Amino acid sequence: MKNWKLTAAIATTAVLTATFAYLYGTEDKNAAAPADNTTAASEPAKPMDWSFLPDVVASYGDKKITKEDFIKNIEDIISAAPNNGGRPPINSDIIKAIAPKIINTIIDKRILLDIAKSEGITPSSGLVFEEFDEILKTAPKEETEKFDTALKAKNSSIEQYKKELAENKMAQEDAAINRWVKTKIQASISVTDADVKKYYDENQDAFTKPETVNASHVLVKSGESQEEIDAAKKKCEKIKSDIDSGKSTFEGAAEEFSDCPSGKKAKGNLGNFGRGDMVKEFEDTAFGMKPGEMSGPVKTRYGYHIIRVESRNEKGIAPYANVSAQIDVYLKQRATNDAIKVILDKKKAELGVKINIAEEKTGEAPQITPTPPEKTAPSEPAKQE
Fold first, then answer.
1. CATH fold label, 211-314
2. Could you tell me if residue 359 is left (phi over 0), alpha (psi between -120 and 50 degrees) or otherwise beta?
3. Biggest alpha carbon distance in the chain?
4. Do 116 and 179 contact (CB within 8 A), yes or no?
5. What is the pLDDT, as a whole number, of residue 35?
6. Chosen CATH of 6-35+51-202+319-355 out of 1.10.8, 1.10.10, 1.20.1110, 1.10.4030
């Protein structure tokens, strides 16, 4: 499922960068594994090939979007993003594949910006500050922490990034559009308790919590030769023996011996995970144990694990009280998107929008399609593979 994370949302206040969120916004759930200390050789960046673009990529009314305009927008988006999350760099093939979506988004943005300006909402650095701070206040704590970590990795900070962002013309325009959406569209949208309850009752599958296990492990990484595999198993058996005899604690063994980052970071704890999140041998063992039980050495492609189950969460439907606030936000955002789409469809028909690159779909609102409230399993730490 494509998720719109704070990193990108703040970068350009959720208009043009929505296109890249569509492509890059997923995060993988990986099996528990040791950190791979080897770094793949970085390939030299290839120069962008813009030859697929016509001189005028689109027109609407008496206005046009030139090849130069398109390229400038792409460059602004790339420069605004603080971190690509380790994903492949943006390249010409990717841009070409999503060019129609980007062009539609540029047109939508320009139309909405004109509307905002006509109603007295002018782009400014002050508006960016206000919108930025509001996002930070309402964003989940874990998202702000991820965003802060990404910036620190680049020797920056949230405050420094905010100041730089406030001087970005594109961010100022996006902030103006967001302000217009909130004051002119969202302010008139009402969702009742009955609407929320109806959605909950009619979409029970969306609120089904899967069975999960909270487990800790000690990993002894093994090589590929039989001698290395035997040595790893022997070491794992010794660690378990010391835990069983009371010579060491599970947490202490994880901190001292585990080859998984969870050892030192969380005393071996992997948090909650569901079926399919871990390699099969690990999963089968963990889901076959009761809370408090500890396994013997379990062989996976990463080596040998000692697994201890901390707790289990059985499959069930999330209580209405736990998800009603999420549903309320979702329904309001969906209604907002629908209202914006109606406005844009009308304006674009009046202006006679023409796109000079074959496109798969037209008329999309620039607001990010709201993701329906998800299963409410506890937040999980990333599992490394």
1. Chitinase A; domain 3 (3.10.50)
2. beta
3. 82
4. yes
5. 39
6. 1.10.4030
Residue 96, pLDDT score:
85
Using DSSP, state whether 117 is helix, strand or coil: helix
Structure tokens at 43: 């390939």
User: Which of 21-35, 61-75, 182-196, 345-359 is predicted most confidently?
Assistant: 182-196
**Alpha-carbon gap, residue 90 to 349, rounded angstroms:** 32
Q: How many CA atoms lie within 13 A of 267 on its CB side?
A: 7
Q: What is the pLDDT of residue 81?
A: 56
Beta strand spans in the chain (E): 56-60, 63-66, 208-209, 212-221, 269-274, 298-300, 303-313, 316-317, 354-355
- Whether residue 278 contacts residue 309, with contact meaning beta carbons closer than 8 Å, is answered with no
Residue 358 pLDDT = 74
Please state, rounded to an integer, the average pLDDT across all residues of the chain.
81
Distance CA 231, CA 288 (A): 27
